[in-house]
Design the sequence.
């Protein structure tokens, strides 16, 4: 019927029919055909559409007549997923269309409408759909050194390019932030003792199509570093100096030392890329270097990851020794003590023979333990020089003293007292009763009473002391009673006020007297 209708509407054919058929028949046929033609549907045009790859389309088909059914054919170019439909097609095209290439593809659907009164179908329409590919961001993982700027270029597999945006998760890193563009350029630093990672989640967008996110990692290596100890100080003439360090970061395996011009003028030589030893780093000191402070810069690096390391200013101090002079009693008694000192305080004391004399290592208190001698050593480090002094102490046993001298004595009497060992010093506890000469020991009675006389003599560090009491008495006047004159040959008994004394005659040729009677 459809082909016949086309045939009828061909003007040339109508002209031939007019020449060969009666006019009435032609008019009847034309009117009948117009009635048939009026029953064929006209499909509603559908505008061209652009979608993203993987989209399920939903193209609703309508016409000017109710009950219209449709068939369609599909011509796809660089697209997969479209299909022809010739029976039971419904009124919606619902194919899932996927771009087959990295550039847009197309599908052209030719849709023909049908109704019961127009079994041959109405005029077909064409529906054009453009399918854009889903862009995929492409970026490579990279590794940089702490403090460096990343340079992560982002491209896409889609021809014509795309735009990019990212978020980021940083672990052990600072400096990473969300952004957009085709280059991630950010200065990143590690925050801990090991490498950190910034993970960028990148999404590409092209022609309104959003791609799946990808993860790109930037590993940030920690810069090689050291935690240095104190700058070394050595004594003049010392040939090495030890530079200690307590910990490392970034796994340094080489070190260099760059001395300044003054140090090099004294013979110090630069060290270049030497293997980093376990602590300490031993620095060579020229034997002829004079007293002074010498400057250098120590740097470390890691030859494995290529990251430049940190640099540290250091100094090497060369000092002159400080002579030490020990001051203190060099003779002590067993059990005696004395605190010794030296020129520079703050050092350490020691005894060569603690069984003879001990010494407190901090205070310098020397204590006699037994008779003998011991070397006491004092040592103090000043500016790298270990300064030492030695002094010998003699420890002696005490010598008991026994005082010898007359007692009691009379007021105004003077007697010499002595002790076991001469050369000491005498003193009186009560000089108003008896005085004593400090050097000679001459005791003189002053008034009636008693006084303790003390003798003290130092022998080998021992102060030996003895005490004796002197009694001083006042005189008692004596009156002699007896017969005088007497005849030659006669005898008589004389008495004194206080019996018990001794008698004597000044001229025994004139008169004699018994000493006791």
Sequence:
């Amino acid at each position: 019927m459809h082909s016949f209708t086309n045939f009828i509407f061909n003007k040339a054919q109508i002209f031939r029919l007019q020449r060969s058929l009666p006019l009435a028949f032609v008019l009847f046929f034309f009117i009948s055909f117009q009635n048939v033609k009026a029953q064929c549907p006209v499909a509603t045009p559908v505008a061209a559409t652009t979608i993203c790859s993987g989209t399920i389309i939903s193209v609703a088909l309508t016409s000017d007549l109710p009950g219209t059914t449709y068939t369609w054919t599909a011509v796809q170019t660089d697209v997969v997923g479209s299909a022809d439909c010739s029976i039971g097609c419904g009124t919606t095209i619902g194919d899932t269309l996927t771009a087959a290439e990295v550039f847009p593809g197309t599908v052209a659907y030719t849709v023909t409408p049908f109704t019961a009164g127009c079994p041959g179908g109405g005029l077909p329409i064409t529906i054009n759909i453009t399918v854009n590919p889903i862009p995929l961001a492409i970026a490579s993982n990279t590794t940089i050194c702490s403090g460096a700027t990343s340079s992560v270029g982002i491209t896409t597999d889609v021809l014509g390019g795309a735009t990019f945006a990212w978020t980021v998760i940083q672990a052990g890193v600072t400096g990473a932030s969300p952004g957009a563009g085709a280059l991630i350029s950010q200065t990143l630093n590690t925050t801990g003792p090991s490498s950190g990672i910034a993970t960028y989640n990148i999404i590409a967008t092209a022609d309104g199509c959003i791609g799946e996110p990808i993860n790109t990692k930037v590993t940030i290596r920690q810069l090689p570093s050291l935690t240095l100890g104190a700058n070394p100080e050595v004594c003049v003439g010392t040939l090495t100096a030890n530079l200690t360090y307590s910990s490392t970061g970034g796994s340094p395996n080489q070190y260099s030392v760059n001395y300044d011009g003054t140090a090099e003028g004294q013979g110090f030589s630069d060290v270049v890329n030497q293997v980093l030893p376990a602590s300490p780093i031993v620095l060579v000191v020229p034997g002829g270097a004079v007293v002074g402070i010498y400057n250098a810069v120590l740097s470390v690096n890691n030859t494995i990851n290529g990251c430049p390391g940190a640099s540290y200013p250091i100094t090497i101090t060369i000092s002159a020794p400080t002579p030490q002079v020990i001051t203190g009693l060099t003779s002590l008694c067993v059990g005696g003590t004395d605190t010794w000192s030296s020129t520079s305080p703050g050092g350490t004391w020691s005894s060569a023979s603690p069984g003879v004399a001990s010494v407190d290592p901090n205070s310098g208190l020397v204590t006699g333990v037994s008779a003998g001698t011991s070397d006491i050593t004092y040592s103090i480090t000043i500016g790298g020089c270990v300064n030492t002094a030695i002094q010998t102490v003699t420890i002696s046993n005490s010598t008991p003293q026994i005082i010898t001298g007359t007692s009691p004595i009379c007021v105004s009497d003077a007697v010499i007292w002595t002790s076991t060992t001469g050369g000491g010093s005498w003193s009186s506890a009560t000089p108003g009763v008896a005085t004593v000469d400090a050097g000679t020991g001459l005791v003189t009675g002053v008034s009636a009473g008693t006084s303790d006389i003390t003798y003290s003599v130092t022998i080998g560090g021992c102060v030996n002391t003895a005490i004796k009491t002197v009694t001083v008495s006042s005189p008692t006047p004596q009156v002699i009673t007896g017969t005088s004159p007497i005849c030659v040959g006669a005898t008589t008994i004389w008495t004194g006020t206080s019996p018990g004394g001794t008698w004597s005659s000044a001229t025994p040729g004139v008169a004699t007297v018994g000493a006791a009677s």
